[in-house]
Amino acid sequence: MAQKFQNYIAGVWADSSSGQTFENRNPANWDEILGLFPLSTIEDVDRAAIAAREAFKSWKLIPAPARGEICRKAGEIMVSRKEEIAAIMTREMGKPLSETRGDVQEGIDTAFYCASEGRRMFGYNTPSELQNKMNLSFRIPIGVCGLITPWNFPMAIPTWNIFPGLVAGNTFVFKPAEDTPHTANVLVEILIEAGLPKGVLNIVHGAGEVVGAAITEHSLIRAVSFTGSTKTGQIVAQTCGKLTKHVCLEMGGKNAQIVMPDADMELALNGVLWGAFGTTGQRCTATSRLILHQDIHDKFIEMLLERVQKLKIGNGSNEGIEVGPIINKGQRDNIERYVALGKKEGAVCITGGERAEDGDLKNGWFYKPTIFINVLPKMTIANEEIFGPVLSVIKCTSLENAIEITNGVIYGLSSSIYTKDINAAFLAVRDIEAGITYINAPTIGAEAHMPFGGVKATGNGHREGGWAVFDFYTEWKSVYIDYSGHLQRAQIDI
Ligand code: NAD
C-alpha cells in the first residue's frame, strides 16, 4: 500500500476536503508508486488563504533579521538532509543524483543568502523639497502570496520564492507541481522544524486547473509567483491583471548557444552536451538551439555526434547516469510529436529521434538524446519550446547573423556564445535579447545571488534570485516627516 501524504494548512497536516488523492509515480519505473497526495479543492485553498492571512498579522511584526534566522536554520537542516532529499527528488522526477544534489544545494545557497538579506532590506532617504521636512522610503510586505511551481527544479524554484518572501514578511499558499509533491512536502517539514509559525506557509496539492486557478483567483492572495509554461503563465497573468494582483512570471525558453570559428571547440562541445542534455533537456534554460558558424559546422557536428552517442541513459538513482527519463507520458508524446514535425519540415535527424527501450528502460519514459541538423530558423523545432533532449542545429554565416537567429524567437531567457574574440563577446552581451548571457559557458548554471529571469515571452519584467526578487516580494512605503510646525504645501510653498 502506497504511503499517503497530506496538505499542510494552518499548522496542521490534513487530507483534502474531497478525500481524494492522486498518485506520484517514478518516471524511470512507471510501475513504482511513490505516494498518494491530496487532490485538493477550492475549499482547501480557501482555508489555506484564510490561515495565511491570519498568520500574516503576527509574522509581519517579527523583525526581518529574525525571520532570516529561520531561513538560516532551514538551510542548515537542508545541509544535513541533502542526500536524502536528492534521492527523493530523483525518484519522483528522474534527473540524476548529481543534478538533484545541485538542486538541493541551490536551495541551501538561497537559504543562506536570504537569511543575511534580512539584515539589509534597504529602503532609501532623499532630501525633501521643503525645509524642515524629511523623506524616507522603506519596504513593507505585501501579505499573502500564492506560489505555483513546475516540477523540473522542485527544491530550487520553491526556495527562490519562499525564502525571500518570508524574509520580506509575507505568508504563503504554495501549490507545487503534481509530478513533484514529495520534495515540496519535505521543504515544508524543514521550515516547520526551523521554527516557522503555524499558518505562515501552507501547502495545497492538486491539479493546476483547480488549485492553481483558485490561488490565482482568491481575493486574500495579493501576489502570485508563477513558474511554468508560457501558455499557463498567460492564463495566470490574465486573472491577476483583472484582479489587480502583483504577478511574477518565469516561463518558457528557446535558448541558443552560438559557436564562432575561433572558439575552443572542446569547451564548446562540453558546454552544449551539458546545456542540451543535462536534466534530459527539461530545463527552462536548456540549450535547444545550437548556432554553428559555417566554417566549423561539419567538424563540430562530427565531434558532437561521437560524444552524444556515449551519454549514459538510465535511472537517475544509479550513479554515473547522465540522462534520466522524461517526466511523464504526456511530455514524451509531446517530444515525439515535435520530432515527427522536424522530419516533416525537412530537418535531418542524425541521432536519437526514438525512445530508449533497452532492458529496464522500457519501464520508464526514456527518450534518446536527439540532434537535428539542416534546421532553418523558420521551422517549428527552431521556434517552439520542446522541453526534452532535442537539439536543433542552425548554420550561421557571421556574428550578426548568429545574433539575428538567436533573437528570432518569441522567448528570451538564456543564451551563450563561445568565442575568444572579446569584441564579439561584448557585442553578443549587448545585442542578444535575453535575461541571461553566458560567455564561454553553457546556457545553464544560475547562481542564487544573481537576478534570474527572461525577456519577451519568458517573463513579465520581474526577476527571481539575488536582490531583485525582493522587489517582487515587497511594496514601497513612503514617509514624509514635517518638523516645521506649520503647514507646508508641496509644489506650492517652494
Ligand atoms: P506548467 O505550466 O504545465 O505547470 C506549472 C504549474 O502551473 C504546475 O504547478 C501546474 O499544476 C500549474 N497550473 C496548471 N494549470 C494552471 C492554471 N490554469 N492555473 C494556475 N496554475 C496552473 O509547466 P510544467 O510542465 O510544470 O513546467 C515546464 C515549463 O516550465 C516549461 O515551459 C519551462 O520552460 C518552464 N520553466 C520556467 C522556468 C523559469 O524560471 N523561466 C523555470 C522552470 C521551468
Features of this protein?
494 residues, alpha/beta, seven-stranded mixed β-sheet, five-stranded parallel β-sheet, globular, binds nicotinamide-adenine-dinucleotide
Give the distinct bound molecules: nicotinamide-adenine-dinucleotide
Rg from C-alpha positions?
A: 24 Å
Number of helical stretches of at least 4 residues: 14
Q: Strand order, biggest sheet?
A: 14-15-16-13-12-18-19
Structural class: alpha/beta
Number of strands: 21
**Main beta sheet: strand number and arrangement?**
7 strands, mixed
Terminal CA distance:
77 Å
- Overall pLDDT metric: 98
Helical fraction equals: 25-40%
Percentage of residues in strands: 15-25%
Give the overall shape, derived from the CA principal axes.
Answer: globular
Low-confidence stretches: none
